Amino acid sequence: MIRLEKDGGLWRAVIAREAKANSLTRAMLTELAEIAEAAGREAARALVLTGEGKVFSAGADLDEARAGLATDPVWERLSGTIAGLPCLTIAALNGTLAGGAFGMALACDLRVAVTGAKFFYPVMKLGFLPQPSDPARLAVLVGPARAKMILMAGQKVGAEEALTWGLIDRIVEPGSLEETVASLAADALGATAAHVAGIKALVP
After folding, report:
1. Could you report the per-residue pLDDT of 76-129, keeping only the tens digit for each?
2. Among 65, 84, 143, 203, which residue's Cβ finds the most Cβ atoms within 10 Å?
3. Which SS3 state, helix, strand or coil, does residue 132 take?
């Protein structure tokens, strides 16, 4: 349910469980982590994460979440690997981002969302804690009060507000998402892996 597409130095990992709103199982999260680890080993210049259909991901598969996935270390393995990659990482948010799926998007360098996307992380309502790294990464982007708006007040944030907050970096029409992401990745794809890594290492 994860599809990997490679085009030279561009790696594109697609969450392909559209019938279940791209909700994530442990096997899917493990596969995404393995893809991210391989991207680091094989000197990818850009890694793009996206989903099929109109939802990026609804977060954890609820049946698996109740059975222990909500606290599984695989979430941190995935987000930590993405955050540590020496290449450019882009979350191409083809639709709504919810719950634990926030982790992989927050760990990316850039987040591009389509119009109409919504962002929410209903851990308070569901009785789970957020993944350990997520609140700090979220607060760096939007500030502590807005992080609490999402995590504690359960607010759904629309794309325009998310852009104003700094949660996402650009809004595009759905038909322009791939073109926009390709444009953002173009310079990295034209450089050596060492050059990409060197510039990324200079940015705190």
Report:
1. 999 999 999 999 999 999 999 999 999 999 999 999 999 999 999 999 998 989
2. 65
3. coil
Ordered by where they begin, the domains of the chain are: 2-195 (3.90.226.10)
Residue indicated by tokens 């607010």: 155
| Distance separating the N- and C-terminal Cα atoms of the chain | 34
Contact 118, 156 (CB under 8 A): yes
pTM of the entire predicted model: 0.97
Q: DSSP labels for 103-134?
A: HHHHTSSEEEEETT-EEE--HHHHT-PPPTTH
Is there a contact between 90 and 46 (Cβ–Cβ < 8 Å)? yes
Residue 125 CA to residue 108 CA, distance in Å, equals 26
